[in-house]
Amino acid sequence: MSNEINCIALIGKQNNPLYLKNFSNTHPDLKYHYIAHTSIDVIEERVASGPKNLDLYLGLLYAMEDLAVYGYMTNTRVKFVVVVSVTEGIIRDAEMKAIFKKIHSAYLSQICNPFYNLNIQRSIDSKAFIRAIEAIGVNANAKATMDI
């Protein structure tokens, strides 16, 4: 992938923010909170109007300025949003699906923790989860710079 991940966001089933990691030095966190919040409407519309397929990957939700926003929704209606800078070339769905699978795996490890309470609507603050998400973003961005 020749484009860098700028942000990874997780949104709860009741549209509450669970986690947001900004990998960008040029945009503030508030911009990505806005992008994650606006993507909820696109995800809900796509899920409601689309056929009931088994694919959790929702693909490109929308593009804004130099950013592309991709979505994924789990069976429990938790939404993952990845914001990618669109500097050059195209982004393959297979690459984005692989990134979302890694995020989903990190989320599953978090919720399978017997001490994690799913009913609390607050941000995820587990150090292991934060490290896993940071590794996903850093590894994807390192691969993007090698592809250039």
End-to-end distance, in Å? 9 Å
Strand content: 15-25%
Q: List the uncertain runs.
A: none
Helix content: 40-55%
Strand order in the sheet with the most strands: 2-1-5-4-3
Shape: globular
Q: For the residues shown, what is the average pLDDT?
A: 87
Q: Helical stretch count?
A: 3
User: Could you spell the SSE succession in H and E letters?
Assistant: EEHEEEHH
How would you describe what is shown here?
- The chain has three helices and five strands, in the order ββαβββαα.
- It is an alpha+beta fold and 148 residues long.
- It has a five-stranded antiparallel β-sheet, sandwiched between helices.
- Strand 1 (5-11) and strand 2 (17-22) form a beta hairpin.
Quickly describe the structure:
With 148 residues, this protein is α+β, with helices and mostly antiparallel strands.
Keywords:
single chain, 148 residues, alpha+beta, five-stranded antiparallel sheet, 3 helices, 41% helix, globular
Could you outline the blueprint of secondary structure elements for this entry?
Blueprint: E1 5-11, E2 17-22, H1 29-49, E3 57-64, E4 67-73, E5 79-85, H2 93-111, H3 127-147
Helix pairs in contact: 2-3
